[in-house]
Amino acid sequence: MKKIASLITLFSLLALLYGCTEYHARGAAAGGAIGGVAGALLDRKNPWRGGVIGAALGSVLGATLTDISMQASREAAQTGRPVVYKTTDGRGVYRADPIDYNAHTKCHKVRERVWEDGRLIKDQIKEVCESEKYESGY
Q1: Interior/surface letters 71-86, b for 16+ CB within 10 angstroms, e for the rest
Q2: CA dihedral 9, 41, 121, 31 (to 10 degrees)
Q3: Higher-confidence residue: 1 or 59?
Q4: Residue 138 is assigned to a structural domain of this protein
Q5: Distances (CA, A) of 119 to 33, 34, 116, 123, 125
Q6: Which residues have a Cβ under 8 Å from the Cβ of 74 and sit 6 or more positions away?
Q7: pLDDT tens digits for range 28-42
C-alpha cells in the first residue's frame, strides 16, 4: 500500500511539472525542496514518508504561489492599477504596483510586495513584457 501511494505521488508530481511553465517549475521545485526537508524533519518515525508528503505539498503550494504572482503582475501591468490579494484570515497580503513602461522593449515594471502577519517578507521589481507572435505565411 505504501509503495502504491508513493508511486501515485511521484506520478502526480511529474504530471504537475510537465504541464508547467519555466516559472511554475521553479516555484514547484523550490516549494518541493523546502517541503521535503520540513516533512523529513517533522516525521521522526519515518522521515522518507514525511519527505515525500512534504515535497508533494510544497510543490503544489510553490507552483500555486508562482501562478498568483504571475497573474497579479500581468493584471497590474495591463490595467495600470495596483492589484491586491489577501488571504481569508487577512494574515497574508500580496500587492503588485505598476511602476514604469518602456515602449522600446514593450516591458512594464511591476513592484511586488508580500506581507505576512504585517511584516514585509518580499519586495522585488519584476518586468512583465508583451510578446508578439510571428508566423510565416504563404
Answers
A1: ebbbbbbeeeeebeee
A2: -20
A3: 59
A4: no
A5: 24, 21, 5, 11, 18
A6: 128
A7: 777 777 777 888 888
- Provide the residue range defining the domain that includes 36: 2-129
| DSSP code at position 80 | S
Q: Do 13 and 58 form a contact (C-beta atoms < 8 A)? A: no
State the CB neighbour count (10 A cutoff) for residue 113: 15
In a domain, 101, yes or no: yes
Q: For 81-132, give the DSSP string.
A: S-EEEE-TTSSEEEEEEEEEEETTTTEEEEEEEEEETTEEEEEEEEEEE---
Q: Is residue 134 in some structural domain?
A: no
Mean pLDDT, the chain, integer: 78
Average pLDDT of span 102-115? 88
Residue 18 predicted with pLDDT over 80: no
Compute the residue count for the chain: 138
Domain count, the chain: 1
Amino acid at 51: G
Residue 135 lies in a domain: no
